Amino acid sequence: MLEILEKFMHQPFVRYGLVLLIILLTIKVTYRYTKKPLRVVLLLVGTLMIVFRTAPGTEVNIEGFAIVSTLLVPVLVILILMVLLLDALMAKVMQEETQDLSRYQYATKLNLLIVFVMIVEWIPYFNAI
Q: I need a surface site. Which of 1, 38, 76, 93 has the fewest CB within 10 A?
């Protein structure tokens, strides 16, 4: 099942279409429902981590601009993934406290969507390590 999903996700039109959809949903939902600029930045950074995925088996370079794609991005993916999950949890807590379904429900769903796509995109890289 995972192999089929990976093959489907690595087709260019699906991958970039999903990224574009996530970016548009990020801007629309966060400004319309939450009006939280830090959440917008977090979701956009999560989307960038999907776009700048490092290919499995890439050698680590410690010189030049390649250090960003081979060292910095894989480390930031783990951190952003945890922060997205924490933001989804906090949005759920705030939803229960304020009884405001529309404001935090979309933020939670969008966070979990980006987490799911990040995991699917980055599993091959971390399996290759």
A: 1
pLDDT of the residue at 100: 67
CB 56 within 8 A of CB 69: no
Q: What is the pLDDT of residue 119?
A: 93
CA–CA distance, 17 with 29 (Å, rounded to integer)? 18
Residue 4 structure tokens: 């089929």
CA distances 91 to 14, 34, 38, 87, Å, are 29, 10, 13, 6
CB 54 within 8 A of CB 73: yes
Instruction: Tell me the pTM.
Output: 0.75
Cα separation, 97 vs 9, in Å, equals: 37
Q: Are 23 and 122 in contact (CB under 8 A)?
A: no
Q: Give the position of tokens 């959440």.
A: 39
Query: HSE (CB half, 13 Å, CA atoms) of 101?
Result: 0
Q: From the first residue on, what is the mean pLDDT of each consecutive set of 10 residues in the chain (129 residues)?
A: 60 67 70 73 85 83 82 92 94 82 81 91 89
